[in-house]
Amino acid sequence: MTNIEKYIQSFTAAFDIEAEQCEGLEYQGIETWDSVGHMGLIAELEDVFDIMMDTDDIIDFSSFEKGKEILGKYDVEF
Amino acid sequence: MIDYNQILNIPPYSYRKKEKEDFLTAILGELTKHHYQKSPLYKRMMDTLNFNPEAVIKSYQNIPFLPVSLFKELDLKSINDDEIFKTMTSSGTTGQAVSKIYLDKETASHQQKTLVKIVSNFTGSSRMPMLIIDCSSVIKNRAMFSARGAGILGFSIFGANKTYALDDDMNLNLEVIEAFLEKHQGKPIFVFGFTFMIWQHFYKELKKQNIRIDLSQGILIHGGGWKKLKNEAVSPQAFKECLNDVCGITKVHDYYGMVEQTGCIYMECEEGHLHASIFSDIITRRPIDFTPCDIGETGIIEVVSILPKSYPGHILLTEDEGVILGEDDCPCGRLGKYFGIHGRLKNAEIRGCSDTYESQK
């Protein structure tokens, strides 16, 4: 699986949505991406990419797009 | 307009008395105006007290407080219903009303950010494997959080590989705990829970079953109050010693906070003192006339916080009694007031995180 596929799959698993819904998605933009869902998403991503994110990055992780940029810091390239 | 993004970047224990007072007076004055305009109930109360938010406010100490119990009786909010993002509820025993705190996205997000700034001052910014001394079912209803659920969730950001130490019947899940500890052997571990739950379902069980686990690398943060433990005559010192006895933990920090001012918690430092960050403050007041107490004089605790924007909870009189021990001179090096809590006021309504639990049993 490519990184983008893994990335999308983390979103669909964490928020119970379809892959097509991921693009443009923002924190608090859908019901399931609330603070509980957010920590679920972070756990998924850390698991799939085998990384440990800093608290500041978890807070800054505000959208589907922004998340890609943040994961770049952990050498996850898209 | 209050620039929260800028404010939240200020180190949390960096202001001395005068600087902090000016800072809080400016922001709390703004917030008072905001709530006066947005909440008709708040406006009516200020009008009744003859308080004019537009007049020059000399000190935030002069802005009227609301009794914290008011959030049980009234729906106090400064946002429209369609802006409500989350409703948090306080604890309360059966038959008692619970506080309802209405949050919009902005206030909810500031709460989380503030909590991170305060707690990472004690834990450092890197995350640790997290052991939660509670059961996972407390965060089930996502739109409606109890104080317990909100606490666990708020602190989750400091943890990775979150593991719940108790099952849904509040029994110790030893198998899970042991697997967790084995996996993270030798690493610092973040342990979080509510004071009473830790005592009742963790310490007592380990003691009873005569099991010793190794949390010598752990840092425990706990809150929720001492009321129930006072009944069992457990002092904060005894709590630490007993826990050390069953799991070898040495870093133990209590915190004081309430759902009405989530985010702004008061952490216990290495010296055993609770500290006010620059994002909030406490004032102790004399019960006879509500004038501020001197340092060392016991009084009723008023809490102020710069975060509540979606509801008028920025200045509240609690039902707790405590004493300010000093300001700007704690040996731990953190600036600001430091204090101790004596407990609930006599005759005040019984309330506290662990009491929520009682209602479920």
UniProtKB/TrEMBL annotation, chain A:
SUPFAM superfamilies: ACP-like (SSF47336)
Gene3D superfamilies linked: ACP-like
InterPro entries, sorted: ACP-like_sf (IPR036736)
Superkingdom, taxonomy of origin: Bacteria
Protein name: Acyl carrier protein
Source species of the chain: Acetobacterium bakii
From TrEMBL, chain B:
GO biological process: bioluminescence
InterPro entries: ANL_N_sf, LuxE
Residue runs in coiled coils: none
Record-linked Pfam families: LuxE
Residue ranges annotated for the Acyl-protein synthetase LuxE domain, each copy included: 6-357
MF terms in GO: long-chain fatty acid--protein ligase activity
Lineage, top ranks: Bacteria, Bacillati, Bacillota, Clostridia, Eubacteriales
Descriptive protein name: Acyl-protein synthetase
Origin species: Acetobacterium bakii
